[in-house]
């Protein structure tokens, strides 16, 4: 490599590392919304409408990052919150951001802490095509709650059998001369799944991971 190529490489190295090949992931953003209720901070959650992807699950407002509309993931989180809860941008104050979560399902989630400048849930105009209903839980609930930990097994499959019984080769490991252990499914690693049980239902997966990270940052019971 001559010096010009090396200099070009060095010049293009990021000052702040991002996620390698991020464009191959499903990139999304959520707002972790706080409201003041009875003199204390509550987290606002929404139960997704049954007819949409991941229907009936409890989550924070958010959705897919659209680079054609949003300059960054912060704008995505705010836009999606406006659309789903029927709020104006003036009613949403972004207080900061969490670390980017890279999910095992092939998605990235950028979460932002926000405060909704409303006096109560009656000010919301919920988009019922996406949201069944909303509810709140005191932030203190999670600071003292026990989070349950489960695992699922992740397996990498170089091929699969389709509905007609035909094998579909995704990675021709044998033809490529890769080691024999890659000719069949490999990995089989265990992936953590967190669960919070509430009176409104189970909060789990990515939403639970964000909450757990928040609890750790505050110094709560699971820190």
Provide the fold topology.
Elements: H1 3-11, E1 26-37, E2 40-48, E3 58-59, E4 62-64, H2 73-85, E5 92-97, E6 101-103, E7 107-116, E8 131-138, H3 139-144, E9 148-156, E10 159-161, E11 167-169, H4 173-176, E12 186-198, E13 201-204, H5 205-218
Parallel strand pairs: 1-7
Antiparallel strand pairs: 1-2, 1-4, 2-3, 2-8, 5-7, 6-7, 9-12, 10-11, 12-13
* CATH architecture term: Alpha-Beta Complex
How far apart are the first and last residues' alpha carbons, in Å? 47 Å
Radius of gyration: 21 Å
Rough outline: globular
Can you describe this structure?
The protein is an alpha+beta fold and about 220 residues long. It has a single domain, classed as Nucleoside Triphosphate Pyrophosphohydrolase (Alpha-Beta Complex). The protein has five helices and 13 strands. The strands form three sheets. Strands 1, 2, 3, 4, 5, 6, 7 and 8 form an eight-stranded mixed sheet that branches. It has a three-stranded antiparallel sheet with strand order 9-12-13. A two-stranded antiparallel ribbon has the order 10-11. Strand 1 and strand 2 form a beta hairpin. The radius of gyration is 21 Å and the shape is globular. About 20% of the residues are buried. The mean pLDDT is about 95.
